[in-house]
Design brief:
The protein is extended and about 155 Å long. The chain is α/β, with parallel strands linked by helices. The protein contains 31 helices and 13 strands. Among the domains are: about 180 residues, no CATH class; about 60 residues, no CATH class; about 100 residues, no CATH class. It starts with 11 loop residues before the first helix and ends in a 35-residue tail after the last helix. The strands form two sheets. Strands 1, 2, 3, 4, 5, 6, 7 and 8 form an eight-stranded mixed beta sheet that branches. Strands 9, 10, 11, 12 and 13 form a five-stranded antiparallel beta sheet that branches. A hairpin with a 5-residue loop joins strand 11 and strand 12. It is found in: Mitochondrion. Keywords: Coiled coil, Iron, Iron-sulfur, Metal-binding, Mitochondrion, Ribonucleoprotein, Ribosomal protein, Transit peptide. GO terms for molecular function: iron-sulfur cluster binding; metal ion binding; methyltransferase activity; structural constituent of ribosome. InterPro entries: Mt_RNA_Methyltransferase, Ribosomal_Rsm22-like, SAM-dependent_MTases_sf.
Length: about 1000
């Protein structure tokens, strides 16, 4: 969005003078003016004892304005002795004449009165100061504080004065601020100062404080001073005695009717009041109302966005700020020293062209749609996992380069966002306990190739700095972390070793899920000691597994490696439907087998846990984020893959791309990207739902809250806070405790025993829709439902303001006016979404399969027909007369007598196999005709070209001739016989029989 152009404004002094003219000129007594034919003398406004901040330079006209105004003697006069005012046009003269008539007295008396009132002002001092200012120099404005004068008076050294001048003025040093010796020291320390041009005036925020107000004046559009009388203003503001007689005249009536102003110009309306108050006062006097501008709301929202950039916590409810899902700053910057620079050193040994080609070849082409980036243009592509995996043992040099170039930056951003959210929900006590552990925290990176360890170390360093923010001494390094990274490839391990120090690399994970943890009857020896971790980070490890049982085994393997004393497991996948389904399956597995339902509470998994045939024993645990409920996921009601899924739970994090990723993507317009991901953060061995939150500090640091003495009472309070979440917890503030929180339970039989915690709040699962006058939010509630909440302006100023500042992934604590269930498009086999999801490619594939099946059936029918024909030939049966009519005799080629060409005759072939006889032996006998006779009778007609035919060939030829001439009783061409002559022959030769075949 383009920034709005900053509107030019008047300075503070000119604004004050202009408002004064409006007040006294339109709402007060008439202004005393001189005769219209006389040039208006300059009236200097007396100094007003009010602090001002102004530092400006004079140049050209500015210096001219400080000079003394011309007297009447210096002005040109006409022959009649009247002063000529060449600058006034006829309209101005006419206006002055009207003002003189309204004054009710001669203009000469007004001139005398004005001169008498102006005699008390000391103009000569100002003229002297203004004349000392040249056109090409600038100086401190008269009346401003000289910050260096006090230092000189106290006897400060020249260097101290120069440093103070540098601090006060910066590079732009006024000319007379320092003395000659001090200027030499200034140049030696800071170089030549920058000269100010006449256009550069400092803003009020950048100017130095002023204790004496400079004498300002009101100028017109040409820079000339405008005359106005300040005596009524002086009387009202400063109680100046001795009112001029000219002011006693009756004030003129206001131009606008209906505005009642007290006589004498005393009105309650003040131009110095805010614009809204002035508009309301005028509307009240006019008996009207103020209409809101249509664009005012949009401008207010833009101002609020600007205010939030300056201070994100400004005017935000503390509970809203506590539920924010965001890093600080919102865009994640990759650490230069520990990440970007080492990778750049590695990439400098390889060609950028080869690296780009390898990345595009591995991750699906330009834009890398198969990487964690998932660009918008790749959403229509098939949903495939990331091609490269850290547990892969066969990975070449360029593939390892492609991994650390395209996968590690977005993975780092996603891991950082999840770690920050986990740290917010658990509090600082959780991380303090890990750092205080002997040997430090134990962290396993099981899928990020080292990016998860880098993100963890950044979190620990930031937390450690916050603990030592008040120390004056250098901050000591934080306790070391026992870092373990899974890297199956040697090439990837060597590159990760350049980024991480004091790190252990392992080629594969131990399989603790299928090994015994206690002595058994078969083996009574103690179980082998297991390696356990406090934090396990496993991004992009479930989706590449093809089968569901493989994913379950992998999740159970990670769970078995987690510490039972508050270990945290973080699973992250791509923000696509298939990635969410992998996370949803892992969540369902953990709730079914490993996370127990708290005492005094029931859920959909209670029946499974109470089943005596259940082979798994659930233990204490909880989901930290993003879920605030432990029911069945409302977006994962059907296990497994769901075709046509449109709604799924995912989140987004923006990060700044490094230079090498910019070159691979070919990006030139922006250097940031948004990575979409689905995740779940689970804790083993601790359940914050069984804690008793008694104060705001424990609400911020949930891990520091003590266990609840009555678990059943804690479950009742949890249900109560869940039911009250739609109404909002706006009354909960940092001063809240168990004594003053009872106001929220006015209808309850007993007061609450704990404050509403963050895990009782709904979370925004989609970006809020901010409309005019209301905000629509799709939230996942703590009851395990997806609802659409609407927060209008009428619901409350604080709630509406925070709703407009809400973002995707935030916890919402201020309720809503309306709540309705949201329709989810979860896909399925026979749903409309699933049918659309099949797409054109699947339809074409189905059509191709149907066509192949049809061709296969036709081929089988043809083979059956050929077998039937073959059986008929073997049996000696005539096929049918219709087929005989459609059959054509083959052309028998003559033997060529050419010595150079190899020749062959028909005797070399078995003609019965080449051209099987169409008439069986039984048919020949029944015809009663001898073959020899037929051959002799037709010999004259076939003498030409038949001398070299064998008897078998002649026999076949005569048989075909009988069929064609109709001797068998079958007409060849309709009911007519075949002509024996050519109809195109001349008249005398039409009776000559035509020849069969071509003439030679």
């Amino acid at each position: 969005m383009l920034a709005r152009a900053k509107q030019s404004r008047l300075c503070n002094g000119c604004r004050h003078d202009l408002l004064t003219v409006f007040e006294r000129g339109f709402c007060g007594p008439p202004v005393a003016l001189i005769h219209h034919s006389t040039r208006l003398p300059l009236r200097w406004r007396p100094s007003i004892e009010r602090p001002r901040r102004q530092l400006r330079s004079f140049h050209g006209k500015s210096a001219l304005f400080q000079q003394s105004p011309p007297t009447l003697d210096d002005q040109p006069q006409r022959d009649d002795g009247r002063v000529v005012n060449e600058d006034l046009d006829p309209e101005q003269l006419e206006v002055l004449q009207e003002l003189e008539n309204a004054l009710g007295r001669p203009i000469n008396e007004a001139i005398d009165a004005d001169r008498a009132a102006a005699a008390s002002t000391d103009i000569q001092n100002l003229i002297h100061n203004a004349q000392s200012i040249s056109d090409d120099t600038f100086d401190l404005v008269r009346g401003t504080i000289d910050p260096l004068a006090a230092l000189r008076a106290n006897g400060a050294s020249a260097e101290d004065i120069v440093r103070e001048a540098r601090r006060a003025y910066g590079d732009r040093l006024p000319q007379n601020a320092l003395q000659e010796g001090e200027k030499k020291i200034y140049k030696r320390l800071y170089g030549e100062p920058v000269s100010l041009s006449y256009e550069e005036f400092l803003d009020e925020e950048e100017a130095i404080d002023v204790d004496v107000t400079t004498q300002n004046e009101l100028l017109d559009h040409e820079g000339e001073p405008v005359e106005y009388d300040m005596s009524p203003f002086r009387e009202k503001e400063f109680q100046v005695e001795g009112e001029d007689d000219a002011i006693d005249a009756d004030p003129p009536q206001p131009a606008e009717g209906g505005i009642n102003i007290e006589s004498g110009g005393q009105s309650s309306f003040s131009p110095f009041a805010p614009a809204e108050e002035r508009a309301k006062e005028i509307a009240l006097m006019l008996k009207g109302r103020v209409l809101e501008d249509e664009n005012q709301e949009g401008e207010d929202e833009e101002d609020e966005e600007f205010d939030e950039e300056l201070d994100p916590s400004m005017r935000t409810h503390p509970f809203t700020q506590l539920g924010k899902f965001a890093t600080n700053p919102r865009s994640v910057f990759l650490p230069q020293e520990h990440f970007v620079e080492p990778v750049q050193n590695v990439m400098s040994k390889f060609s950028n062209k080869h690296l780009k080609e390898m990345c595009e070849k591995t991750f699906g082409g330009p834009g890398l749609p198969d990487s964690p980036l998932t660009p918008r243009s790749g959403r229509s592509r098939p949903q495939v996992p990331i091609p490269l995996d850290t547990s892969r043992h066969l990975m070449g040099e360029m593939e390892a380069n492609a991994y650390i170039t395209a996968i590690m930056p977005p993975t780092y951003a996603a891991v950082m966002a999840v770690l920050v959210e986990t740290r917010k929900r658990l509090g600082s006590t959780w991380l303090n306990n890990l750092l205080a552990r002997e040997g430090g925290p134990r962290v396993l990176d099981a899928g990020a190739g080292g990016a998860g360890i880098i993100a963890w170390r950044e979190i620990v360093q930031a937390h450690w700095n916050s603990l030592h923010s008040s120390d004056k001494q250098p901050v000591p390094p934080p306790p070391a972390t026992k870092s373990v990274v899974l890297t199956g490839s040697d090439a990837l391990r060597h590159r990760a070793a350049n980024l991480l120090d004091n790190t252990t690399f392992i080629p594969r994970l131990p399989d603790y899920a299928n090994t015994r943890d206690v002595p058994t009857l078969e083996d009574d020896r103690p179980a082998q000691q297991r390696k356990q971790f406090d934090v396990i980070i496993a991004p992009h490890t479930l989706f590449p597994l093809q089968e569901e049982y493989m994913r379950k085994n992998y999740v159970q393997k990670l769970w078995s490696m987690l510490s039972p004393e508050g270990g945290v497991l973080i699973l992250i996948e791509k923000g696509i439907p298939r990635g969410f389904e992998a996370i949803g399956a892992a969540r369902e597995l953990l709730l079914e087998r490993h996370i127990a339902v708290p005492e005094g509470r029931t859920s959909e998994y209670s029946s499974i846990h109470n089943d005596t045939e259940n082979d798994y024993t659930p233990s204490t645990g909880m989901i930290i984020a993003p879920c605030t409920n432990h029911e069945r996921c409302p977006m994962y009601k059907t296990s497994g893959l769901s075709k046509g899924r449109k709604d799924f739970c995912s989140f987004q994090q923006r990060y700044i791309r490094p230079n090498y990723l910019q070159r691979v993507l070919g990006a030139k317009d922006r250097n940031h990207d948004d990575v979409d991901f689905s995740y779940i953060s689970v804790m083993k061995g601790q359940d914050l739902r069984q804690r008793q939150v008694q104060s705001w500090s424990e609400l911020q640091d949930s891990f520091s809250a003590p266990p609840h003495p009555n678990p059943d009472r804690a479950s009742e309070d949890y249900v109560s806070w869940t039911d009250l979440s739609p109404k909002g917890f706006e009354d909960v503030h940092p001063e809240s405790n168990l004594t003053n929180i009872e106001a929220l339970f006015t209808n309850a039989g007993q007061p609450p025993s704990t404050l509403p915690a963050a895990h009782t709040l709904p979370r925004l699962v989609y970006a809020p829709m901010k409309r005019r006058g209301h905000v629509i939010m799709d939230v996942c509630t703590s009851r395990g439902t997806i609802e659409r909440w609407t927060v209008p302006r009428s619901f409350g100023h604080q709630a509406y303001r925070d709703a407009r500042k809400s973002r995707w992934g935030d916890l919402w604590a201020l309720g809503a006016k309306t709540q309705i269930p949201r329709n989810l498009r979860l896909g399925g086999e026979n749903t409309k979404e699933a049918m659309k999801a099949r797409g054109r490619k699947e339809r074409l594939k189905q059509q191709a399969e149907e066509l192949l099946e049809k061709m296969h059936d036709e081929k089988l029918e043809e083979m059956e027909e050929m077998k039937e024909v073959e059986r008929e030939f073997k049996d000696g049966r005539f096929i049918d007369e219709e087929r005989a009519k459609r059959s054509k005799p083959g052309k028998i080629k003559r033997e060529t007598s050419n010595s150079e060409v190899e020749s062959f005759t028909m005797d070399d072939f078995n003609m019965d196999e080449v051209n099987p006889p169409m008439i069986s032996e039984s048919t020949k006998k029944s015809s009663g005709r001898s073959i020899t006779g037929q051959a002799n009778s037709s010999a004259p007609a076939t003498q030409n070209g038949e001398d070299d035919l064998t008897p078998e060939e002649l026999q076949t030829l005569h048989e075909w001739s009988d069929i064609l001439t109709g001797d068998t009783g079958v007409p060849v061409k309709g009911a007519r016989s075949t002509r024996s002559y050519s109809k195109f022959a001349p008249k005398g030769t039409k009776k000559v029989p035509r020849k069969s075949g071509k003439s030679r």
